[in-house]
Amino acid sequence: MLDAQRKLVPEMMELMQQRYRVLKFIKMTGPIGRRPLGQIAGISERETRTMMDILRAQNLIRVAKEGASITTEGGTVLVELESAMEEWSGRTTIAKRLAEYLGIRTVKVIAGNCETDAAAKNLLGIEAAKQFITKIDDGKIVAVTGGSTMASIPANIDTFSETDDMLFIAARGGVGEDIGLQANVIAASFAEASGGTYSTFYYPESLSEEAHQAFRKEPSVLKMLHLYETTDCVLHGIGDAQTMAEMRNSSVEERQKLQDRGAKGEAFGYYFDAAGNIVHSLRTVGIQTSHLERIPLIISVAGGSNKAEAIMAYMASAPKQTILVTDEGAANEMLKLLVAKEENKD
Fold this sequence. Notes:
Elements: H1 2-8, H2 11-29, H3 34-41, H4 45-57, E1 61-64, E2 67-70, H5 72-89, H6 91-102, E3 106-110, H7 118-135, E4 141-144, H8 148-151, E5 167-170, H9 183-194, E6 197-199, H10 209-215, H11 219-229, E7 233-237, E8 239-240, H12 241-247, H13 252-260, E9 263-267, E10 270-273, E11 278-281, H14 289-292, E12 297-301, H15 308-315, E13 322-327, H16 328-345
Helix pairs in contact: 2-5, 3-4, 6-16, 12-13, 15-16
């Protein structure tokens, strides 16, 4: 029946998904005003006003002086529609195909394209937070990387039970100049949001080999190395190789080396080619690829069609227990590249 409805009234699905997404944003950020809601959802103020009026008329939200918030009935509608919305959009099918192609535990695909859709990054944060909360179980030590995608997650995590002894740590040193996107700051944000604690760690990326070896003997570094050995969960982003090299102010020679070696993606200070081989790595203290195989929960978060090759480069050698949270832009582009790769084999 739904397929018939979609053929007869194709605009129905788009409208339903748009309202569902706005309702989801109100649940996660409410109370929220009309203007910031429109900015998060990527729609005009007039469209936001119309949609809020409709949702309020259906008793799905309440609107007060401090802004809009979801009602109990609205929360029930979100829960009841979640699986259906994923099926109708085709994202469930795409996610299953990708997980099979990549050989990892699960793929979650959210609506939109981070490259062009500002709202998509918020949805990535919401889904990554959900995966973390529902999958962490008895995990106690959580390592997080830096970056804008990671920074979008803590705001979507509510304090939940049994987190008093959960410790958040930086998976490695910071990258770039924006202090708000540093791993230490993001680890603190996770701790504040979930009710846990955090431990800071500062390590310069430009040390000589001699200084690097000396630094590894420091008590604070030895403590962090022990934590990395006992980490229960890693949340990390995936970067485009050249973009990450630029953020690190890498020399022209180093960027050329990355290009010559076919570097496509970056994670944890490692640069990967299309086959998942490590073609360059930074001299640093942090989560190593050797740690990943024994860490029970790994959540990789990256979106945008421009990130497809980078994500695939890392996933080519990612541990099987990895959960990938991405968007339609990246997922569709990855499927195109994977299908083309299979056809070329034939």
